Each structure stands twice: as structure tokens, then as C-alpha cells.
Amino acid sequence: MAKVLFINPVIREEDNPKHIPYGMALLASIAMSRGHQVQMYDANAWRKGDDVLAEVCRADDWDVIAIGGLTTAYNFIKKTVKIARRESPKSFIMAGGGFLTAMPLEIMEWLPEIDLGIVGEAFETFPEVLDMLDAGERDFSKTLGVVYRMGEAPKLTPVRPNIPDLDVLPWPAWDLFPLDIYFKNSQLLFSEEAFTSKRRIDVNGSLGCGLICRYCWHLGTTGDMVVEADEHGNNDVRFTYGRNIRYHSAAYITKMVKHLFENYQIDFASFIDENLMTMDAASGRTWIKELCEAWIAAGLQPTCRRDGVPHDETCKGVHWSGTSHATLHTPQGLALMFKAGCSHLVYGLETFDPGLLRDLGKGSTVPNNVSSVKICLDSGIKPLPNIIIGFPDESFETIRNDIKALVRLGIHAKPHFATPYPGSEWYYTYKHSIIEQYGGNLESFILDLGDATKPTAVISHQFSAVELIGLQDIVLKRDLRLLDQAERHFAGAKLNPVAQPRSSFNFVPKKIKAPVAAGPEKLLPR
To answer: Which of 110, 86, 92 is nearest to 447 (CA)?
Structure first.
């Protein structure tokens, strides 16, 4: 059997480690169920530096060294595969996850240390590749869902279909991770229950989202990925508006959380689903009801909710949180969620400008956004609005609409920046501009990506990165006076460009309109 070393990359170096990598923990569990020997080095939790990482790589005769993560982890992944190749030259290095799925050919070119990449969902592909390696087989030309090397050139195989039933998956291998470190960082400043948590852990109830937000990626987990020849005749990935919504049964989720409650004494579960309300809508409004009823029946309901008393340190049970959407929640569903222990929901409101909302593809309106805050608050659940600035058609008027709504609703929010992450529609729409902004070097853009709290590639037609940084602070302070002053200065600079020179960066890309009824055959722009 193969001897496998997983390496969890460092994520958000400026923050404490808070989230066990759910997908990697699942793959480790799957590999062990097939008889393979698995070890985990959680660099994100330990943060011991390059010397310890090198020591781990040479600590054993690893048959496979596996690493994966989102594009935002690319810096660490790039460094890690070089160390792994140097310290363990005979190991077969595999990579997967969003960073590779979004651009498999480029990643294989930039990181020659990687022997094989798993593209899209890995639940079946990863154990199949391990079994092939164990049998001495290295011809991956007929293996679905991989990018491999034929000589120096990477080759991409056809898409592997998503598994139809998530309940066949084992539970994640939590024991492989330093849970004490993650429990130490349990507190989240989102709600009283989250902030007083002592033993929080992430769970995942579903995969997918029915929305087509142009700034968001799905990367093969929602039936949205196809493989076809590019302009050079090489197979490459493309992402579509196709959606394959899948979710665990209420019984699977509550049995898993019950296990965590009894064996690890957790007091909080964070659902990391893309959108809980998408699942509820896809199920005909039965999924949330079944989940909440099963949660209560399993004895997981927090005693403060059971007894109708304020939450304090004497409360027993498991509070939880998740994600929602302004057009998909219902008062009845939220009331059930509160009763079962839901403390807060992250709402992707993004903007309060009607034109921008229409262009985002979310299917929401300003009245939806405004009413969603009150509806959620009335249920007892804390709504956490996410605001973004720097959209392609962002203007002073759209920013003004945001600030007025934030003031009216009593919301204080530091906005994120609209970022064209690989795999999103706007990445393909603005790819040429992105490359230009990074001096012709696309990898420099990937190395610069973070969690959208700083500007990277600008996709705003009107504002530069410097101006967006200023506007971010204005929105945070909800300062309409300063916004008016900035707009007057902006207008004056346009009228007198010699006296007040502006950036030469100027482009007006072709606008892409989403189809009304979209399916897998409707491709995003290349």
C-alpha cells in the first residue's frame, strides 16, 4: 500500500489557523479506508517554517506527497513542492483543489515539480491514482479528471463526473490534525455564541450553489466544468453555467455532528457550504426543516434555545452558523434554524445598487437585500452582510447607494474588493487586462491573490487601485461628505488632465450578458 504524506498549506498568514481543511481530511479518510498509510503535516496549524517542512519531507520514504488548496494558497504551494522535490526526490508529487483546477495547464507549467494534478472533484480520482501507483502503473492517459505529463507537456484528460450521492463519503479524518490548535482559535466575532465558543469545528452539508455570480468560482464541484480544445488545440478546462446541486441527508449530518459532540465535546459547528439556502430551495423547502428537526431530535439543540433563556457559559449543546442569500431564505425556515441553534448567517449582499445587482447575476434586488436584514434579525439570527466594491461598472453613484443603505440599515462593513479569481466569469472576461496589469506575467497575479481585502487586478472601468483603497475607507466610515468631495475632485481631474494627470490604465472590455436559461452547454467567455 502507498505511503502518503499530505501537506496542508499555510492560509492567511496574518491570521490564526481556524479551519481544518475539510476536503483534505475527507481524502485522507478515503485513502485510509483503501488500506493506504497516511500522515498529515498541517503547516497551517503548526507554522514551523521551511526547515521543519523540509525535515518532514525527508522523514520517511513517501510514495506520494499530496498538497492542495485554493488559489490564495499558491505562494506556499509553490514553495512547498520545490522543497518536497529537493528533500524527497523519489516521491510522486500530486496536487489538487481550486488552485490547480482553475488553470491546470498553467500550474503544471509553472510548477514542474508536480507529477500529476487532480482536476475537479477528487473523491474517486485520488484513490484510483493511489491504487495505480501502488500497482506500478504510471500511464494516466485514460484516467478521468487528471492533468499529467507526457514528456514536458501537460495533458488534460476528460472530466470525471461528480459522485451523485454525498452520503457515501466517510467522515473526515479529524484525528490527523492538531485539534487543540484549532479549538484554541474557536472564537469568531460574528455572534455571542460564536465568540464564546471553546471547541468549534467546520462541517460541510452540501456541494454547489444554484447562482451564477460572475465574481465567484465553483471549479468542477457543481457540474459546471467541461474540457475542450483551446485555440492551440490542447485540452483545457472551461466553466459553464451548469449546476449539479448535491447535499447530505439530515441523518448523515446530524450523526456526524453527534459524533463530534460526544467524542470531541464541540460546542459550535460552522457550515462551510457555499449557500445553505440554495440547498433548501433545491429540495423544495424540505432540507432545512429536516436538518433542524433531526438536530433537535439528536439532542444537539443548545439548552438556551430549548429553554428560551439568554445564552451563557452554562449552555450545553451545539450552536451553528452558515450562509444565506437575500432571495432564498424564508421567515419559517429561519425560525426553525434559530430554534435548532443557528446563531448567525453570512449574507452575500455585495451591493445596494440596482444596476450592479442586475449585472452580478445573483438574481437579487435592492428591496431583497434591504428586507433580508430585517427578516433575519427578526428571527433572532445575526445577519453578516458581505459588501464588495470595485465592480466593472462601479461609480460614485453606486458607492453612494451602498453608503445610504448601510446608514439606513445600521450596518458597519469594511468592503472587499471585486477580484477576478481564476475560474470565475470575470477572470476570463478581463484576462488580457489582468496580464497587462502584471507586466505580462500571469503567475505574478496568482502569487498576489489573497482574500480580497487588498486590491489586486482591477476590473473597475472607472477607478484605479489607489482610488478603490480610498473608497473602501469612505464606505467603512459611511462618509457621504468625503465621497462628494472625492467625486468633485475626480470630475475636476478629468476636465484638466494636464494639471492633474491620471493613470494611463484604461480599457472598456466587452460586456458579457448571462443567458436567461443557462445549462452546461452555455460556456463562459474564454
So the answer is: 110
In a domain, 17, yes or no: yes
Burial per residue of 143-175, b for 16 or more beta-carbon CB atoms within 10 angstroms, e otherwise = bbbbbbeeeeebbbbebbebeeebeeeeebbbe
Residue showing cell 505562494:
75
CATH classification at residue 98: 3.40.50.2300
DSSP state of 454: S
Are 317 and 306 in contact, with CB atoms under 8 Å apart?
Answer: yes
Q: How many domains does the chain have?
A: 1
Q: What is the DSSP letter of 97?
A: S
Q: Are 457 and 429 in contact (CB under 8 A)?
A: no
CA angle 90, 95, 99 (to 5 degrees): 150
- The tens digit of pLDDT for each residue in 461-488 reads 999 999 999 999 999 999 999 999 999 9
pTM: 0.91
Name every residue whose Cβ is closer than 8 Å to that of residue 61 and which is 6 or more positions away in sequence: 3, 90
Residue 451 lies in a domain: no
DSSP 447-472: HH--SSSS--S---SS--HHHHHHHH
Pairing state of beta strands 225-229 and 342-350?
unpaired
Report the alpha-carbon distance of residue 268 to residue 342 in Å, rounded: 9
Decide if 152 is inside a domain. yes
End-to-end CA distance of the chain: 41
Instruction: For residues 331 and 502, give the distance between their C-alpha atoms in angstroms, rounded to a whole number.
Output: 49
Local structure of 150: helix, strand or coil: strand
- The residue type of 185 is N
Whole-angstrom Cα distance, residue 454 to residue 464? 13
Q: Tens digits of per-residue pLDDT, 238-289?
A: 888 888 889 999 999 999 999 999 999 999 999 999 889 888 888 899 999 9
Q: Is the dihedral of CA 498, 502, 503, 508 positive or negative?
A: negative
| CA atoms of 436 and 442, how far apart (whole Å) | 9
Closest CA to 287 of 334, 237, 250: 250
What is the rounded CA–CA span in Å between residue 39 and residue 461? Answer: 48
Q: Are 491 and 483 in contact (CB under 8 A)?
A: no
Encode 28-43 in three state secondary structure: HHHHHHCCCEEEEEEH
Distance CA 83, CA 69 (A): 17
Residues 222, 209: contact at Cβ < 8 Å?
Answer: yes
**Domain encompassing residue 26:** 3-161
118 close to 126: Cβ distance less than 8 angstroms: yes
At 157-175, the pLDDT tens digits run 999 999 999 999 999 999 9
Q: Which residue has the cell 471549479?
A: 219
Pairing type for strands 268-271 and 246-247 reads unpaired
Q: In whole angstroms, give the CA distance from residue 150 to residue 129.
A: 16
Q: Is residue 20 part of a domain?
A: yes
Query: How many CA atoms does the CB half-sphere of 26 hold within 13 Å?
Result: 20
